[in-house]
Amino acid sequence: MESVSFPPLSRVAICGGTHGNEMTGVYMVREMQKQKMDKTGSLSVSIILSNPRAVEACRRYIETDLNRCFTSDLLSSPVTDSTPYELKRAQELNAQVGPKGSEEAVDLLIDIHNTTSNMGLCFIFYSIDWVTLHILKYIQSKMTSVDIRAIQLDLPISEAYSLESVGKHGFAIEVGPQPNGVLRADIYNMVKEAVDHIFSWLQEFNSGSTFEGGEVEVYTLVKSVDYPRDAVTGEITAAIHCQLQDNDFKLLQRGDPIFLSFSGETVKYDDEELYPFFVNECAYYEKKIAFHLGRKIKLTFPSINLTG
Amino acid sequence: MESVSFPPLSRVAICGGTHGNEMTGVYMVREMQKQKMDKTGSLSVSIILSNPRAVEACRRYIETDLNRCFTSDLLSSPVTDSTPYELKRAQELNAQVGPKGSEEAVDLLIDIHNTTSNMGLCFIFYSIDWVTLHILKYIQSKMTSVDIRAIQLDLPISEAYSLESVGKHGFAIEVGPQPNGVLRADIYNMVKEAVDHIFSWLQEFNSGSTFEGGEVEVYTLVKSVDYPRDAVTGEITAAIHCQLQDNDFKLLQRGDPIFLSFSGETVKYDDEELYPFFVNECAYYEKKIAFHLGRKIKLTFPSINLTG
Questions:
Q1: What pLDDT is recorded for position A1?
Q2: Beta carbons of A180 and B185 less than 8 Å apart
Q3: Can you list the alpha helix ranges (DSSP code H) found in A76-165?
Q4: How does it sit in the membrane (chains A, B) (predicted)?
Q5: Which among A11, A226, B21, B210 could bridge A288 via Cys, Cβ 3.0 to 4.6 Å?
Q6: Cis preceding linkage at B177, omega within 30
Q7: Is the CB of residue A260 less than 8 Å away from at least one CB of chain B?
Q8: What 3-state class would DSSP assign to A5?
Q9: Parts of chain B belonging to CATH 2.20.25.160
């Protein structure tokens, strides 16, 4: 693979509290603001609490899920009296660190999330982006005691709905398991370490280092599975089975139990072998998702350096 | 110790959803209603979703914490336009399964809760009550693979603020760790098994069995510890230390780390040896409680049988 070059990655945004009850990002962003980390070596860092009203209320969102508001259509929709708070806030953020798809957008946008699923530390991104893959590989090489994985959502950038899609490069860091509204020190430390490594990589890159190409494993989203539900009331009639609970990224095979109904029956998996993730994520009950299923692929990436 | 006698314990209430985002009780109550378990052998069972509006919103409460509304003063306070929804609901529940302290109250009230703390299955009750201690001992003997503990809150019944205080006998079953808004099958099964054993004990008692006296360990609440906070903003400046996190009921000794500040300093425990519980409970951030501390005591209880 031929090597690729990019201009300096000096304008960075670190966001937390995009979902107001995911506490790692909330406290990380507040601490970075307190430590005045907006100038760090070659980096100019925007440190952003994305959804302050939801943080204040300790809820995922006030009117609508902020992290579904960053499609090109929504970002350019006119504001009226009935525009939800979060869509207005998305347009503000787009003005601050975007505009999405423009030359003025920050070079790298990192958005910190938590999940109640047992997913360890997970990058989530859209199109295959060499910078993101290099940073992923770098962190994997530095944090060997932690499971660091990546999920790729295959959507064109205009349809990419989450905050990280506003940067020229960007990804979400999704870390769990952590209950909403709770801050765990182990997870806080893990994310802090990851952010420190990202900053180190950026400094090295901006100072002219070449990073060799390589290969990473990535999970691609194939489909989502809903809970069994009562046909009349729509209420769920089963929980994630104990053998699937906490087993994100372990290959699901035909015949494996996936649900346990409240009356005691086991529902078994009966489809092609895929990898589950976001298993029993709190916020996905309302989105009718019990878990996602994905395929594991290998991505090869070229060596990377600063534009000449 | 002399043996004691009680009249039949035939009117029972099983409550869930007193906090609307604690899902075990919500789904257990719905399933018991579906299975029409209101008549079970010698038992007449009121199956109650305590806070339906909070359940609907998947929040702990709508206006005020329902499970702090059951003091005698609050239950007898006049209802006005500004009375919070939950206080009105408390008075409704008191009319339905109480009135508290009266002969008409249900014989046994069990309220099902979840915590984000790693507390296993835990009984919580007020005054020392022989029926509760017998049921506790019985469940401990039946469910040997689960940590089953008990916490006693030493308050006179008139000041007892939670729903279980409305029954002639009563206790909360507090089970964790489970994130708010999430249902775990392992915890659901554990609580289901406990409720089944409670029903068995009641049937045996009502049929005239004598239960021998014995001894149980109980934790009594000594005090609560708040998070370190910023003197100006009031925001927390530290998380529960990794060495305390998930270690509910493990003796805390002088010098043990209890908090890790966001800037990296460890705060150590510097007080008498006590047992922590409700460590990092989500709902207690707003109550300014990082964890409770208690003492472990042994309680001896007499043999018990039906009034002759």
A1: 77
A2: no
A3: 85-97, 130-142
A4: Peripheral membrane protein
A5: A226
A6: yes
A7: yes
A8: strand
A9: 222-294
**Span of A100-114, A130-144, B31-45, B195-209 with lowest mean pLDDT:** B31-45
B247: CB partners within 8 A, 6+ apart: B118, B276, B279
Establish if B63 touches chain A: CB-CB under 8 angstroms: no
- Contact assignment for B180 to A184 by CB distance below 8 Å: no
Residues of chain B with CATH 3.40.630.10: 4-218+300-306
Strand partners, A6: A306
Q: Domain spanning B4-218+300-306 has what CATH number?
A: 3.40.630.10
Query: Is A73 an interface residue toward B (CB < 8 Å)?
Result: no
Active site (catalytic) residues of B: 174
Interface confidence, given as ipTM, is 0.93
Q: How far apart are CA B279 and CA B291, in angstroms?
A: 4
* pLDDT at res. A77: 96
**A-B contacts at Cβ under 8 angstroms:** 96
Share of chain B above pLDDT 90, in %: 94
The tally of CA atoms less than 13 A away on the side-chain side of residue B32 is 28
- In this prediction, residue A135 carries a pLDDT of 98
C-beta atoms of B184 and A31 within 8 A:
no
pLDDT tens figures, A54-99: 999 999 999 999 999 999 999 999 999 999 999 999 999 999 999 9
**Cα A279 versus chain centre, distance:** 15
Provide the pLDDT for residue A31.
96
Structure tokens at A167: 């940067």
pLDDT digits (tens, 9 = 90+) for B254-268: 999 999 999 999 999
Distance from CA of A53 to the nearest CA of B (A): 16
Residue B75 φ/ψ region, left for φ over 0, alpha for ψ in the -120 to 50 degree band, beta for the rest: alpha
d(CA A243, CA B203): 34
Segments of chain A assigned to CATH 2.20.25.160: 225-280
> What's the CATH number for A4-218+299-306?
3.40.630.10
List pLDDT tens digits, range A127-136: 889 999 999 9
SS3 call for A237? coil
- Is there a catalytic annotation at residue A174? yes
Q: How confident is the model at residue B104 (pLDDT cuts 50, 70, 90)?
A: very high
Q: By the 8 A CB rule, do A223 and A292 touch?
A: yes
Which residues does chain B have within 8 Å of residue A189's beta carbon, measured at their own beta carbons? 242, 260
CB-CB under 8 Å, A182 with B242: no
Contact A96, A46 (CB under 8 A): yes
Name the fold adopted by B222-294: N-terminal domain of TfIIb (2.20.25)
A225-280 has which CATH code? 2.20.25.160
